[in-house]
Amino acid sequence: MPERHLQEYEQFYQEQPFGLWREDYRTAQIAYLLAAINSDPKKDSPKLTEFMPFFADQSAVGNSQDFDDGSQMFLAQR
């Protein structure tokens, strides 16, 4: 990998960290699936977002369309 690409990845990671969020999301999917399978059919089924506390923190910031993490501009200038 050219050094320029490594620098781009480093800059992108500073703007939009990756890694643990994906692991948390996958774990939330598994927990959601187990809860949905074992839930009472007479009650409302759980929602995936109930198993993602980090998602609730992001939704407190505002509408996801209004939130600008800078990644779109970074990728456009690539």
Describe this structure in words.
- The chain is an all-alpha fold and 78 residues long.
- It contains four helices and no strands.
- It has one domain (3-76).
- 60% of the residues lie in helices and 0% in strands.
- The protein is elongated and about 55 Å long.
- pLDDT < 50 stretches: none
Series of secondary-structure elements, N-terminal to C-terminal: HHHH
Percent helix, as a range, is 55-70%
**What value does the Rg take, in angstroms?**
17 Å
Could you give the distance between the termini? 16 Å
Tally the beta strands. 0
Number of domains: 1
Helical/strand content category: mainly alpha
Mean pLDDT: 78
Shape assignment: elongated
Main sheet properties: none
User: Could you state the oligomeric state of the chains shown?
Assistant: single chain
- How much of the polypeptide forms β-strand, as a percent range? under 5%
The total of helices stands at 4
Draw up the topology in text.
Elements: H1 3-15, H2 20-38, H3 53-61, H4 71-76
Pfam families: Phage_tail_T
InterPro entries: Phage_tail_T (IPR009350)
Protein name: Minor tail T domain-containing protein
